[in-house]
Amino acid sequence: MKKKKTVGEKSPKLSEQPEISDEQQREVSSDEGEVNASITDQAFTDDIPEPGGKDEGIVAGFDNAADNEEELIAKKEEEDKADLPKKPFRPAIFGLGVLCGLIVAMIIFGIYYYLAGQEVCNGYNSVTNSEKKLTSLITSQKNRESTTLSECPSALTETEKAEISDWKIYQSEQYKISFKVPSDWLQEKPATANQFFFKAPGEVSVYLTVGMDLATVSSVKDGYRLASTTTQKVACQMAKTTTYTDEESNSDQIEKNKLQIVKFSALDIPYQFDYTWQTDLGASISADYQDRFKLILKTVTLTE
Question: Where along the chain do its domains lie?
Fold first, then answer.
C-alpha cells in the first residue's frame, strides 16, 4: 500500500526508507500468501512522523475531538442563551395594559347599559302611549257626552210644559242632575247627599225614590214578580226599565201595586228611579199615576 503525499512534503530518499530484514521478509511472504498484520502495522507506524518533527505538517491520523464538534456548538449556543439578560419588569407597560382593559370593559358595559335603557324606555313609552290613548278616548267620550247633554232636546210637549209649570224643581249639583216633582208631593224623608224620597198626597201608596252614585234605593219585596223589561230614553241616555207586579194571595188574584225601576248612567255616574204606585183604586186612577211617573222622567236634565 502506497502512502499519499501531503502538499509540500518531500519524497523520502531511498536511503532513508526503512530496511526490512530477511526474517521479516520471510514472515511477510508465507506459504499461504497471507500478509502478516503485525508487520504491516509496524511498517505504517514507522512511517508516521512524530509531533514536533520536520514532518509535522503531514496529516498522520484523525482527531477524536472533531467528532464532538456539533455537540460543542450546541452546548455553546445553550450557554449563550443562558448568558442573555432577562427583560426587566416594566410597571408602566403593565399599568397601560390594565388601563386599556378597563376602557374596553367600560365601553362594553356602556353599550349594554344603553341597549337595556333603550328597551326600558321603549316599554315605558309604549305604556305611556297606551295610557295617553286611553285618556284621550275617555276624554273624547266625556266630551261627546257633554255635548250630547248640552244639546239634548226636551221631550216635553207644549201641553206637558204647561202642566208642569207649577211643579217643584229638585236638583243635585254634586251629581249633576235636576228633575221636577208635583208641587203637592211631600218629601217623606229629608234629602241625603245621594237620595231623594217623595210621597203622593192622600192615603194612596205612591212613592218615588231617586238615587245617584250606586245608591241602594230599594229592593224588590217578597211577593213581587217580574212583569216586563223595556228600554227608553231619559235625558238622551238609554235607560233600562224593569216592571214588577205585586199580587194578593187570595182567590181573586187582585193586583195591588206595581214597581218600576229605571236605571241609566252619564258622566260615569249611575242614576236610579224607583216608582211604586197603587193599582187597586181602579184602572183609570192607576193609569194616571203611571202617566205621572212618565212625565217626571221627561223633566230629568243632566248638566256638565
Answer: 20-52, 158-302
DSSP letter string, 159-190: HHHHHTTTPEEEEETTTTEEEEE-TT-EESS-
Cell 426587566 belongs to 88
- Would you report the helix, strand and coil content of the chain in percent, each value rounded to 5? 40, 25, 35
DSSP code of residue 145: H
Q: Is 62 helix (H, G, I), strand (E, B) or coil?
A: coil
Cell numbers that stand for 94 in this block: 403593565
Query: Rounded to two decimals, what is the model's pTM?
Result: 0.53
Cβ contact 264:239 at 8 Å: yes
Q: Under CATH, what is the fold of the domain 158-302? A: Protein Transport Mog1p; Chain A (3.40.1000)
pLDDT digits (tens, 9 = 90+) for 201-259: 988 899 999 998 865 556 676 778 888 999 999 999 999 999 998 876 444 666 788 99
Q: Are 210 and 196 in contact (CB under 8 A)?
A: yes
The string of DSSP letters for 242-276 reads EEEEEE-SSTT--EEEEEEEEEEEETTEEEEEEEE
